[in-house]
Description:
By secondary structure, the chain is of the alpha/beta class. Helices cover 31% and strands 25% of the residues. It comes from Algibacter lectus.
Amino acid sequence: MIKFIEETVDYLRDKGFEKPEIGIILGTGLGQLVNEITIIKEVSYNHIPNFPTATVEFHKGKLIYGELEGKKVIIMQGRFHIYEGYSLQDVTYPVRIMEKLGIKTLLVSNASGAINLDYKKGELMLIDDHLNLQGSSPLAFKGVELLGERFADMSLPYDVAINNKFKAIAKANNIKLHEGVYASVVGPQLETRAEYRMLKILGADAVGMSTVPEIIVANHLGLKAAAISVLTDECDPNNLQPVDISEIIAMAAKAEPEMITLFKELIKTL
């Protein structure tokens, strides 16, 4: 993997991806932050050596380098999931690339379902902790110790100082920002009533199919990490309605402006 990483990093540096400070991963239906940045360079994933390619139709598949609120950023417009057939090492490969290019902070967004029924669709949740229910770890491979501490500490996977800033920004901008535990599952099917009940018992406030692998690798590499979920549906097992993926994407887009405000105001302070 080290050789692959070096090849990818050399390619992107040659393309002008120079000394970014912050990496941002945009989740399902959450691509509009790109409109807020001054783009310096952008490259399609399928042109980047050793990079996975997004196979989900609503994930764009571009790595974008530019300036946002005076900071150099790299934005993943479209992410990878194990439900696409990728390994967890594939899914998290871009995080390793962004770290080698120079980022010190990783900000992640996702669309998720609300397990906590006090949380409503269209609202935001700051992730305070997580449950990895994807069946493996992105650190479970031979040679991982050459890239970072094998037994990565996960006592505080989400940076406390950044989370406190997010909460202050939300209050100042009158944005409703819940805080809770995110459960990451394999997917791509949505959950059954029994699975929603199980997740509630386990302590999850929201559920999705991403984010946790990237956060694990960010901690493995010593990056500061934070993540926000846009709650796109309510997962009430006693009154469960069929969910249309197009409705989830539409709800994500509706709630996205508040998430963009949080990210932009945070980046000013980093």
